Fold:
Amino acid sequence: MKFLSFLRDKLISICIYVFVYVVVILLFFAFKVDVSLMIAFSFLYILSNIIVLMFEYYSRKRFYDELVYNVKVLDKAYLVLETLREPSFYEGKIVYNSMYEINKSMNENVKELSRQINDFKDYIEMWIHEVKIPLASCILKVHNNKDKFSDDMMLQLKRVDDYLEQVLYYVRSENASKDYLIGKVRLDKCINNVLVRNKDYLLEAGISLNVEDLETTVYTDSKWLEFIVNQIINNSIKYKKERNSFIKIYLKKFEDVVTLIIEDNGVGIADSDLPRVFDKSFTGSNGRDNVKSTGMGLFIVKSLCDKLGHKIDISSKLGEYTRVEITLSKNKYYDEVR
Amino acid sequence: MKILVVEDDKSVRDEMVELLNNASYEVRLIEDFNDTLGQILSINPDLVLLDINIPFMNGEMLLEKLRKVSNVPVIMVTSRNTLSDEVLSMGYGADDYVTKPYNPTLLLLRINSVLRRMSNVNETIKYKDAIVNIKKGTISLDSREIILTKNEMIILGYLLGHKGMIVTRDELMTDLWDNNEYINDNALTVNISRLRSKLEELGLRDVIETRKGQGYILL
Structure:
């Protein structure tokens, strides 16, 4: 709170003080009052007015300065009311009480909204599990009646399943609750599950796999890691080059951590796009030019990795390769200590 | 082999029956879930495919009760794929766990391997006059012994497990991939013809027949 601004605000009061003073002095002259009385009056009048102004200024300054400062430094500015004492002056009380009421109604509103969002998420999650039952039925039907359905049917059903998974994990990655359980996981089993799941897709795309010995245990949630790897493999399939495409999967082992590397010789990612691949809804030139892309896959992958405490990096050269590196911990206590 | 399907969704159940019938298993069903446990015990199957979401009692509780009275192999099936489900199911004594929607071929493989684990198949299998040693990866007849590659062994092992039945290329491929051998269509053809010529060397001529458009059959 600046003193000059405060004075400008009080301009009318000050004008009235000055006007009254001038009128009184003129009256004193008219009634030929003694000069010493005039001086005494002037002194008292001016002093008392200054004291009143100063008192008003400081009592407000304390409250408003605290308010402005706390709003600025608090990372959740809406909690500012909790940090303030109720002011002693009347208009401050009005502001304080109004803020209290506003806060209360906003809290109720926010609570209602977050309840709605959570209900919706619960519903979506339930719905996905529901819809997987008819999907399972369809997959079995296609498998049992191979002569009636084209091979593509199974791939399309798998795509539906992949998109469903994406929504499921998006809901989970945004949820505050811990939906995962970190445990000892055989990395090779995890990768094998993903590759077998994508077998038809990979064979159809004519991608050869070069999988080195991945036998090791890491601390992660197997389902989440499978989802993550599935997304990356799917990207490699989506953005493959016309011929001689391969995916190479190998490990780099360190003392406490293991880095899982999934590398392809696909179309790659432009340098300008690379820093933004994990951004929500970012599709980049690949997504725009070639295949339909929601820009959600890697965003979800990144947030799942963050939750699990895995480091994920993507390096690429346009037209040559894309390399995804996921660093997982081998040691149970590593994450906790960190 | 008698497999019991405990699944409350009728269309999934019907398709599952067809899938298992086609794989020449004898299939039993439960349609009334009032006394699931009692029915399982009276049917006395060789393996149970148990859905987690069944009416009246959830699959995990049922499994826990079942385990107190029976050691029948159980594969849990679920559409909820959270780790806790898996941990719980395995904790209650499930032998394996698959999530919906599953790859049907893979489901058959899992059933196969659970059943095989139960029956403690020997390391060696006799086929005609030859002896196949799966662990060593060899096949021998009289005094001659031929070493098979890992891929050839997986293919032969699968064919031996389905002797006299048509085995599709997809089944062979799934089994290979499940065993970390990520080969493509051409490589499968090459592996099969190499396996044939190795068998021929032992005097087992034309034992793997090609059924056009269907797959292979080991005579």
Observations:
- Residues 185-201 of chain B form the longest helix (17 residues).
- DSSP finds eight helices and twelve strands in chain B.
- The CA atoms of residues 173 and 201 of chain B lie 25 Å apart.
